[in-house]
Amino acid sequence: MKIEKNDTYGVYVHIPFCLKKCSYCDFISYPGLLSRADCYLEQIVLEMEHYRGLCADTVYLGGGTPTCLRVEQLTGLLEKLRGCFQLTKDCEITVECNPKTADEAYFKRLRAAGANRLSIGIQSFHDEELSLLGRLHSAKEAEKCVKDAKRAGFANINLDLMFGLPGQTIEKFFESVRRAVDLSPMHLSCYSLILEAGTPLELRIHSGELRLPEEEAERAMYHQLVSYLAEHGYAQYEISNFSMKGFESKHNNKYWERKPYIGLGAAAHSQIGNIRFANPPDLDAYVKIASLAPLEGRETETISPKDQMAEFMFLGLRKTCGVSQKEFNKEFGLDVRKVYAKQLKKFCEWNLLEIDGDWIRLTKAGMDVSNSVFCEFL
User: Fold this and answer.
1) Band of pLDDT at residue 378, cut at 50, 70 and 90
2) For residues 338 and 122, what is the distance between their CA atoms, to the nearest angstrom?
3) Concatenated DSSP letters of 47-63
4) Cα–Cα distance between 134 and 276 in angstroms, integer?
5) What is the separation of C-alpha 16 from the centre of its chain, rounded to a whole number of angstroms?
6) N or C: which end of the chain has fewer CB within 10 A?
7) Pairwise CA distance, residues 21 & 2, whole Å
8) Would you say residue 1 has pLDDT above 80?
9) What DSSP state is assigned to residue 152?
């Protein structure tokens, strides 16, 4: 695998520690293992050395809960990243945060260390819903967290919200959206609940103890969300993401636009050219391979031209602007209308896709059934 020195990369760092596993969570995270954090961070530093000198314009620290680390650990990691990679002047440096794990003093230290964007996992502004999800914070603590972050100097803040929760009504979700907007974040990520097999919440729903909202109610939540956010200045630029002008997530755009990215830490994925590779999720296994060259000891996949085209389509269609026919031709030397003639004909006739000049995009109806549309390109 050739690592192009002239490319600009996104860098993702996985912090797999948390205080408590949420009831819906299927991410790679390990509660109760913070005593291993120092050793783990040392391995990340070893791993990043393989990429020394590469240029990066986004850095994203996700988890788990990065802010459950001591602030000295997190700021030290940011310092190491800054020393290893050539960060662009306008580099977007995001840290994920749980409202229970950081206050104004913590945020001030992060801001001084170069972090310039926060993604705060609010999920809901109703305590009973937060309890159901296994979140540790209250609605009041969530509001305080956002205000603390602003006082600490963070202007670029994303808030995560969830809808389609058991027992959730349209009115309750709208109240959470309203309270989020009242805090004036620059960005909102709003996702419907995805039930992951074997999680505590999935088991409770599968047993009949809890019931999800009807599909029509969940769809109404989404439509009301899109309308309300538009009225308050938030442009929808991706199925689940909304922002004030100029505050779109640069890092997430790299995934949707298939730009090269480097993943550091347990379970982190990387994609360079047509090679995708992943670190092992187990902490002990990761420690053993962290110092090895990028492809050694890792799960590796060579992405075929057919799969590259499919990814171009279903990732690009997540964005409200859609996919560019010119860009498809430039990248693959083929006409997208010929490669996917059957899919385009069917979904345009069904009013799930529209072709507007150079652009192919989902319609409003297509966004409601986007996963079904995406599957046709795989």
Assistant:
1) confident
2) 44
3) HHGGGTT-EEEEEEEEE
4) 33
5) 15
6) C
7) 38
8) no
9) T
Type and span of the H or E element at 157: strand 156-163
Looking at residue 6, its pLDDT comes to: 80
Q: What are phi and psi of 183, to 5 degrees?
A: -85, 0
User: Can you name the residues that pair with 236 across neighbouring β-strands?
Assistant: 242
Alpha-carbon span 16 to 149, nearest angstrom: 23
pLDDT digits (tens, 9 = 90+) for 137-181: 999 999 999 999 999 999 999 999 999 999 999 999 999 999 999
Pick from 18, 36, 26, 31: nearest CA to 283: 36
Q: Is 350 helix (H, G, I), strand (E, B) or coil?
A: coil
Burial letters 64-98, b for 16+ CB under 10 A, else e: bbbbbbebebbbbbbebbbebbebeeebbbbbbbb
Compute the Cα dihedral for 204, 210, 215, 218 and give only its sign.
Answer: negative
Task: Evaluate if residue 214 carries a pLDDT over 90.
Answer: yes
d(CA 221, CA 173): 7
pTM (2 decimals)?
0.96
3-state secondary structure (DSSP) of residue 219: helix
Question: Degrees (nearest 5) of the Cα angle 274, 373, 174?
Answer: 110
